[in-house]
Structures are given as structure tokens and as C-alpha cells.
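Q: Could you fold this chain for me?
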Amino acid sequence: MKKFILTLNVMVFVSVATWAQSWNYVGSQGFSGGLAEHVSIAVDSSGTPYMTYSSHLDGFAATVKKFNGTTWKTVGVSGISGPNQATFTRIAIAPDGTTPYLVYSDGDHGYKATVRKFTTQWDTVGNALLSAGYAYSTSIAFAPDATPYLSYEDGGNEYKLTVMKLSGNQWITFGTAGFTPNSIGRTSLAIAPDGTPYIAYMNSDPNWGGQSNLVVQKFNGTTWEVLASTSVHDAVQNPSIAIAADGTVYVGFRNDDNSSKATVMKYSGSAWSLVGGTTASTNAAYYPKMSLSNNGTPYIAYLDGVTSTATVMKYNGSEWTAVSSNTATPTNYLDFTIAKNGTLYVGFQDYNRSSYASLIKNVITGTGTKMVQSSKLALSAYPNPSRSEIAVDYQLDKASDVNLKLYNALGELQTILVSKNEDAGSHTLHCNVFQLPQGAYVLDLQTTTGSQQQKITIIK
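A: Sure. Below is the predicted structure, expressed as C-alpha cells.
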């Protein structure tokens, strides 16, 4: 088996590759070829991105496309809901990692909700037209046992909040239909690792003078209860909820009490607290969307109200920092997700392409070299790419403190392979990467005499 080995021999300095993050379009910019509304994205376990939208080319019926590595291909047929108009199209990947689910409100049937899934064709999940009336602002999520849940503003119940779940072949109300005291807006649904459903929404309380306050509730096994307060924040728009593996609940939103900037809060079991201060954006933030990386790092994406660009911010433990810059200019309907391999994706209606659909992703790129003081270093990894196990070889010309770590494409630590003092000479270890998601990673070797990085690729 061929080994790919990079050896550096210098007296005082060595040249080390440096890496940076950048945003690239996935396939063609404006790939929908026509006006696209209600854009929603998801990525399956193999790293394949999907996008759904209401397509002008199909009479605003729902269409789903996926990127096959070269171009965007229609999943099933164009205009899935056709000839019916579809609004509030949403896509999600089931816990099996491969099956896409599509939600939409059927414009030719009172905008009632329908859920479909794709295996070899788009099949209706449970009963079609499952809502009592207009299903506005739909949101779908899966429990750990793969049961799908659906939330929406219920036009059949004074636009109050209704949550349903699939039981066998029928959708049933989870709790009470229209269980909120007032009409609501912009639902965002998530299921905790223990199976508890959580919902964030804008509460249109008439006592607030036309403004909407943020409410987050969970189902306690009997009824929906409010977390900590019925008014977590005043004057909010577009709440977005995400739940970490440890059960910590995060919610991001546009805060109209603070110049329409983004705010992120978390709930750790008894009270809400701000994440990174009162703002997570420099300017006004429109259509904010929360997501968490595999290690629980919070991210929020939004349309910047000053630069009119798609912006993604990352919380580094003390403050919010921008994840590189880009020139993507959404018009509306921005969506954001993080793939299992750590790649960031932003889908949107593209102002620079006549409001067609576009998708960008954040990638690691080589930016050149830097000089670091070192003696002789050698680092190799093989096979590269790998599906299951990688052998890592490194050589030291003298005894040294050694730290060898593996990072994902976002620069997030995945595992520490070595952290100890080692003797001079050749060293080999075997790293099991079978459980890691497909994608690009970086091995980072740090010694007392220098450093070396090696990019590796994991495939499935």
C-alpha cells in the first residue's frame, strides 16, 4: 500500500501549510432556474445536500433537488404538490440518515398541511391534508425513535399553536389543538435526546401593543408547559430553536428591542441566560437560524441588514465571531444547517440571480505556507482517503513533548491522539475513524521543535 509522506528537512525553519475557511457555491448559483420561495435545506448522513422550495417554474408547486457532486438533480418529479401551489415547504432527513421528508401547505386545498417522504417516489406520510385549516409556518422534527412531529400556526384554531405526531398511519394531535392562549407566529420545533418535544414561537399577546414576545414550551408528558417565563424576551421575530446532546436548549431570534440584532439564549434546566452578551450580530439580523455542531458549538446564520449578505456567526466560548466572509446576497427565505461532517450550509433566495435558489457551503482551503522553527519532522497518514482506520506515522529527531490532535473542517477538536513526552525515532499509531462523518479533517502535530499538519479525507 502506498504511503503519502511529507518530510521536512531544514536547519532552522520549515515550511508548513496553512488553512483558512471560505464559502463556495454548491453547483451553479441560482440553480433553480426560476423564482424560488420558502427555501429549506437538509443534508443526509453521506453529506448530500437537499433543497426544497416553491418553484415558479411549476406554478409554485413544491420541488426538491439534491446535489450529486456535480450538478443539482430533481428528486422524484418537479412540482411534487402539483398542480397545487405549495407554501411553507420544509425538508428534513429522517434519523436513518437517508430518507428525506417534505412538508408543505397545499394551496389548492385550503393550505392544509401534507407530509411526504421519498424512497423510490414521493409517498404521503399518514393522512394527507392533516391540519384542520391553514397550516402556517410549519416545522418538522424527529424523535430518537424516528417518530416525526409537526408544528404549525393552526388556521382552524384561530392561528394558535398545534403540534401533531405520526401514530401508525395517522397524524394525531399531541396535547391539545390550538393550546396557546393567543394566536402565534413562526414556530420552531425540536426534540431533545430524551424524546421531549420543545417549541419556540412568537406569542401575539394583545397586551403587548402589536409586538410579539418569545415563548418556549416543552411537553412534560401530560401538557405543554412554559420554560421559566411566559415572556423570555419582548419584541422578537423569527425564533429558531436547537438542542444540544446534553439537553441544553438554545434559541436565537431577531431582537427588535435592540436594533433588530440577533440574540441567542440558552436554558439549562432552571433559567434562561444570554449566550455571548445581548447581541450575536453586529448589524440587524433578518431570518436568523440556529444550529449546533457535533460538539455542541452554537452557530447562527442570518441576512445582515447593512451588508445584505448571508452571515454566519460562531460562539467561541466567550464571544460571537464571524465564520469568514462571503458575498452571497439573499433576498428572503434563508435557511442554515450543519452537516454531520461539520460543513456549514446556507440556502437562500438569491438576489443576484433574480431570486432563484442558491446554496453555499463553508470549506477548508490551503492559503500558502508559513515558516516555523523546527528540526526534522515527518508526518504521514495512510490510506488517505480512508473508510475505517488510518495509520499515522511521525518521526522525531530527539525526545520531545508531543501533541497530536484531529480537527474537523470547522477547526473543532475531534480527538486527542497523543499527549505525552516521547523518545526520538519513528512512531506509529492506528486511528479508528469509522464513526466519524464523511469529510475533510486535519491532523495537527505539535512538538517542542516545531509543528506539522496533514489533511486527510474520510469517505463512506
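A (continued): The chain has a mean pLDDT of 87.
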